[in-house]
Amino acid sequence: MISPSPLSWRHQGRVGRWAILALLLVPATAEARPFGPPEQNAFAQAAAYWGRSPTQCRVVTGEVVPAGSLRDPSASGEATVPPASGEMIDCRVWVVEGLTPLGLCFTMRHEYGHLLGYDHDAPEMAEEALACPTGAAEVERFRRMVRRQRQRCEKLRRQGAPPKQKQICWDNLGFAKDELRKVEAELSGD
Ligand SMILES: [Zn+2]
C-alpha cells in the first residue's frame, strides 16, 4: 500500500538526487523491487496532480522493474485499469528502472490516470496535459511570484495604504523570496 504524502514541486531537486542514488545502488542484474523514495514521491505528486484517489483500488502496489520487461517492452510504465463495472480490485503500478526525474513524474501521472480508470483515448491522458514542470520552470514561476508581490507592495506605498496593510505585503514578499531562494538552491544542487 502506498500512502501518498503531500510533497511540493520544489522538492524535485532532492527527488532527482534520490533517483540517481537509487540508480547507483541497483545491481547490474536488476530485478523487480518495491517503490523506493523517488517512486513514492512521484506517486504522491501524481496523486496531488489528479487530486483524487483511485476509488476502485483496495490497495495499490508499486514495483520498479528492469527496462524492457513490461508487456510493451518500449513502455516506461504500466498500471491496472479498474473495470468499468465498478468492481473493487487490487491495483498495481509498474515503472521501469532508470527514468529521469521528469520521466518518472510523467510516467507516474500517466499510470495514476489508468488507476482512476482512464484509457489512452481520454483527453486527460494527453501527453501535453500530463507534462511535468521542470525545475527551471518552477524557479521561473517563483520569480514571477516575487515580481508580482513587489509590484503590489510598491503600489500600496504609492497609494499611501495603512501601515498594517503595507507590512503584510512586505512580509509576504519576504516569504516569496525565501521560497525562490530554496528552489534556486535545489536547482543548482546545493
Ligand atoms: Zn498507458
Number of helices: 6
* Global structural class: alpha+beta
CATH architecture group name of the largest domain: 2-Layer Sandwich
- Report the end-to-end length measured between terminal Cα atoms: 33 Å
**CATH domain topology of the largest domain:** Zincin-like
Mean pLDDT, to the nearest integer, reads 82
Question: Which regions are unreliable across 5 or more consecutive residues at pLDDT < 50?
Answer: 1-29
List of distinct ligands in this structure: zinc ion
Biggest sheet: strand arrangement: 1-2-4-3
In terms of DSSP E residues, the strand content is: 5-15%
SSE arrangement, N to C: HEHEEEHHHH
General shape: elongated
**Radius of gyration (Å):** 20 Å
Largest sheet: 4 strands, mixed
Oligomer designation? single chain
Helix content: 40-55%
Number of strands: 4
Q: What is the CATH top level name of the largest domain?
A: Alpha Beta
